[in-house]
Amino acid sequence: MDHFDQPRAKTWLTATAVLGATFISSQLLAWLELSSRGLYFAGNPYAGFFYILTAVHALHVLGGVIALGSVVIGTWNGIYSDERWERLQSLGQVVGWYWHFMGGVWLILFVLLGFWK
């Protein structure tokens, strides 16, 4: 079995899941603030675009948080066999690629929406 620092993995995986959940919470607060100011999905095409874009992103982050949660639970319960370690390692790599892909998409959208003229 490879060397695996479970306490460190628990800390970083849990922190990542908490940050993802915090993002989703912040999106909900932003939507509530916008609606309290009268910016609704149907009333303004720009607001509608913002709601759609952020909702799709929040759904992807939610999917990542759920997948990451399965890895966190796997590390929290302990690894007692080589088979379990290999399965958890594979799942962790897939979830890692997913999060890196989401980060790349975020950067592309940030550049396109923030700097495109």
Write up what this structure looks like:
This protein is mainly α. Helices cover 84% and strands 0% of the residues. The chain contains three helices and no strands. The chain is elongated and about 55 Å long. The mean pLDDT is 83.
Overall number of structural domains: 1
Secondary-structure-based class equals: mainly alpha
What portion of residues belong to β-strands?
under 5%
What is the overall silhouette?
elongated
Task: Furnish the topology, listing elements before pairings.
Blueprint: H1 6-36, H2 45-77, H3 82-115
Helix pairs in contact: 1-2, 2-3
Could you list some keywords that capture this structure?
single chain; 117 residues; mainly alpha; 3 helices; elongated
In short:
By secondary structure, the chain is mostly helical. The chain contains three helices and no strands. It has one domain.
